[in-house]
Amino acid sequence: SGIDFVELPCRHYYCWRCMETYSKLHVKEGSVLKLVCPDDKCGCSIPPKLLKKLLGDAGFERWERLVFQKTLDSRADVAYCPRCETACLADEDSAQCSNCLFTFCARCRNRRHVGERCMTPEEKLISVQEREKARNLSKGNAGRKVSASDIFSIKEILRSSVMCPHCGFAISRVSGCDQMLCRNCEKSFCYACGKPSSQGHTSEQCKIDREKLRVKVEVNDVVRNMQKELKLALSRAHPCPGCRQPNFKVGNNNHIFCETCRVHYCALCHTVVRKSKEHYGPRGCKQHTVDPDFV
């Protein structure tokens, strides 16, 4: 009629019928978190009192239920009971249903298994397949068999996906930048590092941080390799019996001269050698032997 308009808290004005259609469409499709001011640069929330007038009692009740459901789904400490689908508060990896009192694992949603390894997604798929097969056989049906290709597909999807840091939902990127919006909880995060998006966390800054981390890891690897080589070299050294200075043999010659204290000594018995002719020979130490480390 030209006179029925809606004024939002952000001071934007819209046609009442348009806002009514816009609100009902989002509630019907379940995208209630996107039910905000239609202006692209605004995003102001619509007051519940106004939504109740636009949606009606039945639509507003569905909106409240969906918002509550989305809020639960966005919480990492909420798990759903595998028996009655009641929302439960998880304590680390276990949760107890307040409705049916069933205690279950918040990860695989099976019976609580303290001290046992949790099943991987592909192992859970095989377990579900076996249970479904047994159920179908009891009913006289063969049932659909989950093939190895299905398990391989799940592995590939999980391998190429990044878990949303807000709700744990697996997200796979086809193209575009690293700033991702989770379809489950409607929150953004960085696909490159898997951290929640923030004002200072841009794609360019993330790339710089990852490059710094890569350089730091490479430097640490170089230092670690040098330490290993030094440790290996010192294990092959023969300390001087006088000053304990590590010295190395020249080839296979066991006669070593310490430059620090100017003493000759034997690498086999680690004693000072006064006269080499008397120390080495058939009745003494062998002057030329191969160290076990060099074999």
TrEMBL record:
<keyword id="KW-0677">Repeat</keyword>
<dbReference type="InterPro" id="IPR044066">
    <property type="entry name" value="TRIAD_supradom"/>
</dbReference>
<protein>
    <recommendedName>
        <fullName>RBR-type E3 ubiquitin transferase</fullName>
        <ecNumber>2.3.2.31</ecNumber>
    </recommendedName>
</protein>
<keyword id="KW-0862">Zinc</keyword>
<dbReference type="Pfam" id="PF01485">
    <property type="entry name" value="IBR"/>
</dbReference>
<keyword id="KW-0808">Transferase</keyword>
<dbReference type="InterPro" id="IPR031127">
    <property type="entry name" value="E3_UB_ligase_RBR"/>
</dbReference>
<dbReference type="InterPro" id="IPR017907">
    <property type="entry name" value="Znf_RING_CS"/>
</dbReference>
<feature type="domain" description="B box-type">
    <location>
        <begin position="235"/>
        <end position="293"/>
    </location>
</feature>
<keyword id="KW-0863">Zinc-finger</keyword>
<dbReference type="GO" id="GO:0061630">
    <property type="term" value="F:ubiquitin protein ligase activity"/>
</dbReference>
<dbReference type="GO" id="GO:0008270">
    <property type="term" value="F:zinc ion binding"/>
</dbReference>
<dbReference type="InterPro" id="IPR002867">
    <property type="entry name" value="IBR_dom"/>
</dbReference>
<dbReference type="InterPro" id="IPR000315">
    <property type="entry name" value="Znf_B-box"/>
</dbReference>
<feature type="domain" description="RING-type">
    <location>
        <begin position="1"/>
        <end position="212"/>
    </location>
</feature>
<keyword id="KW-0833">Ubl conjugation pathway</keyword>
<dbReference type="InterPro" id="IPR013083">
    <property type="entry name" value="Znf_RING/FYVE/PHD"/>
</dbReference>
<dbReference type="Pfam" id="PF22191">
    <property type="entry name" value="IBR_1"/>
</dbReference>
<dbReference type="GO" id="GO:0016567">
    <property type="term" value="P:protein ubiquitination"/>
</dbReference>
<keyword id="KW-0479">Metal-binding</keyword>
